[in-house]
Amino acid sequence: MKILVCLKQVPHKDARLEIAPDGKWIADANIKFEINDYDNYALEEALRAKDKDPATEVVVATLGPDRVQQSLRTALGMGADRAIQVWDDSLAGADSLSVAKTLAAVAKAEKCDLVLLGLMSDDTNFALTGPILAELLGVPSATGIVSAKLDGGQVEVERELEGGALEVVKLPLPCLLTAQTGMNEVRYASLKGIMQAKKKPLDKKSLGDLGLSAGAVASKSKIEKIYTPPKGSGAEILSGSKDEVAQKFVGKVKELGLL
Amino acid sequence: MAKTLIVAEIQKGALREATLELVTAARKLGGDVASLVIGSGVGGIAEDLSKKGGGKVLVADDPSLANYNVDGWTRAIRKAVDAEKPELILISNTPIGWDVAGRVAAQLDCGIASDVIKIEPEGSDLVFVRRMFNAKFDARLRVSGTPRVATMQPGASEAYAGSDAGSVVKLDGVGGDARTKFVEIRTAPAGGHDLTKAEIIVSGGRGLQKPENFEAVLKPLVDALGAQMGASRPVVDAGWLPHEYQVGSSGQIVSPKLYVAVGISGAIQHLVGMKNSNFIIAINKDADAPIFEVADVGIVGDLFEIVPALASAVKSAKGG
Ligand SMILES: Cc1cc2nc3c(=O)[nH]c(=O)nc-3n(C[C@H](O)[C@H](O)[C@H](O)COP(=O)(O)OP(=O)(O)OC[C@H]3O[C@@H](n4cnc5c(N)ncnc54)[C@H](O)[C@@H]3O)c2cc1C
Ligand SMILES: Nc1ncnc2c1ncn2[C@@H]1O[C@H](COP(=O)(O)O)[C@@H](O)[C@H]1O
After folding, report:
1. pLDDT for position B320
2. What pLDDT does residue A234 have?
């Protein structure tokens, strides 16, 4: 069995995000990055399949500039076998369709039984790449899954709906799944794993290496501007020392008749 | 704007409110409106939508569509697109919407914008306004070319309240196999921690950093107020608290008299669960956190200093 996990490097959850001078993206030259949270769950699920059947090969792929190699090394340290980085300067600002077309070329070349992604990336919040990629690959899919049971040539998954309800569906392999957070307990890379990761293959590919061109994967949408949402009436901010703030808080609760 | 195709959703046997919000968004653009209702035995719902602004309503009615499946829906939407040739296909950003919308766009090889809150026509382009970075920033996304697909955030528009006479047309050839097979729906087991009836809820988020802090830092305030404890999703994902504590779109929808959000940023999926609370107080160290937009009162600062001060002030106010 061969599993491809597509993961994205996104700004660290605790990074202070500022808008870049051109107003089209965040200033990302001096911030910390990490693997997108949702993708960690996808990777963990793949590694669990490998724990059960060591013959399973787990390949991780990402589309991004050289800084993403650090995240790929982390994934290798956690236990993935091989890593693929795809980059071409023309991919800067690529939309989901463009990213999926590029990842589709990787997936086709790898001939995987299972393709795993995260439901959504924490920077763009698109939640689109998975279903687009599934359609391009011509394989069945399920999004936002919180469990997966592999059983021979098929997989039974629970898709998360609203209010905690779950939809159980069955898919034949090969197929594509996108992981919702909380799906499993994500492992850390062990020291031994990190040492081994240094020797594992990390291939960097250009669009040309994949038989693609900038035109073939051109984006159809682009982010024109990002900005701090216009402030509405907003909250009344309580000011003062922490004890003054606490007194004002008590005053509010009393006004509500709850004290 | 030439024509918009709305993909309807059915919930508990009736049109989902989010579908009527799509009607409002489509009508705002001017141009024709057509809709698509998918399911089995859904002629009545199509009739209903045709009277509620859905325009010409296509019905993909087939036993194989009795339960949602992505293959059947992709096929039905494609049929409707071929029949109506819309410039814009509007779908709600729901568990169905985010499962199927990308597939439709990939089939049509067209641009797509997800979780949109506003659509602005500019020349022959459409600009879609949406949140990014978990609501920290807004973005303007320009999608060129036609058709294009957009999923709309439920609640972003008013539900269309007008009544107009449209028509209903049956769409043929919509049945067929689904590779992704429906097995069953499992509802969340009723937990012992029902937040929907609580008068006061104090919820903690990822800002609390460690599971121990829910006991050590949050609980004293919960107890002082006689409140119930709630949480954001990452807290539950990490196993710090059980799912029955989770407030939000995939947890409980609450509307207490007072909701106190501690170390919670205010992502839309959390807001959906608590924004109808009677009064909201948010505590966050980031003055720009989106939670302050829905809060009535905000306290900007380190929760580890503020929350204990609040707990003791409430206690002494009670004379304890
Ligand atoms: C389909 C789907 C369903 C979802 N369902 C839900 C749901 O039901 N409920 C839900 O909550 N989320 C849900 N989410 C996740 C949601 O998108 C957010 O990821 C989540 O709400 C973030 O939780 P948080 O605010 O606790 O964490 P973060 O966004 O990380 O925010 C932590 C906050 O704490 C503040 N903070 C940190 N340290 C301190 C300190 N010392 N003092 C004061 N403030 C501090 C930070 O400034 C930050 O604002 C869902 C997502 C998807 C895609
Ligand atoms: N640049 C990328 N490289 C690899 N995988 C990606 C990339 N962008 C998105 N993905 C995958 O697609 C998922 C959904 O992302 P999105 O559609 O951008 O919200 C992510 O969780 C990743 O698994």
Report:
1. 62
2. 83
Contacts of A13 in chain B (CB under 8 A): 206
Mean pLDDT over each residue of chain B, to the nearest integer: 96
ipTM: 0.96
Taken in order A204, A76, A156, B41, the sign of the CA dihedral is negative
Ligand 2 binding pocket, CB closer than 6 Å: A 6-8, 36, 38-39, 62-64, 96, 99, 117-118, 120-121, 124, 126-130
* Structure token digits, residue B52: 């509620």
Position A31, amino acid: I
Those of residues 208-267 in B touching chain A at CB distance below 8 A are 225, 233-234, 236-239, 243, 246, 249-253, 257-258
Tokens of B282: 């948010």
Contact partners, residue A191, CB within 8 Å, separation at least 6: none
User: Measuring from atom 12 of ligand 2, which residue has the nearest CA?
Assistant: A129
Chain B, residues 39-78, CB within 8 A of chain A, namely 68-71, 74
Which of A130, A222, A252 is the closest to B281 by Cβ?
A252
Residue A230: alpha-carbon gap to chain centroid: 28
pLDDT tens, residue by residue, B256-300: 999 999 999 999 999 999 999 999 999 999 999 999 999 999 999
Of A163, A153, A9, A174, whose CA–CA distance to A87 is shortest? A9
What are the residues whose beta carbons fall under 8 Å from the beta carbon of A206, sequence distance 6 or more? Answer: A86, A87, A88
Q: Which residue has the tokens 């909380």?
A: A182
Predicted model pTM? 0.97
Q: What is the pLDDT of residues B80-133, one digit of tens each?
A: 999 999 999 999 999 999 999 999 999 999 999 999 999 999 988 999 999 999
The answer to whether the CB of B55 falls within 8 A of the CB of B166 is yes
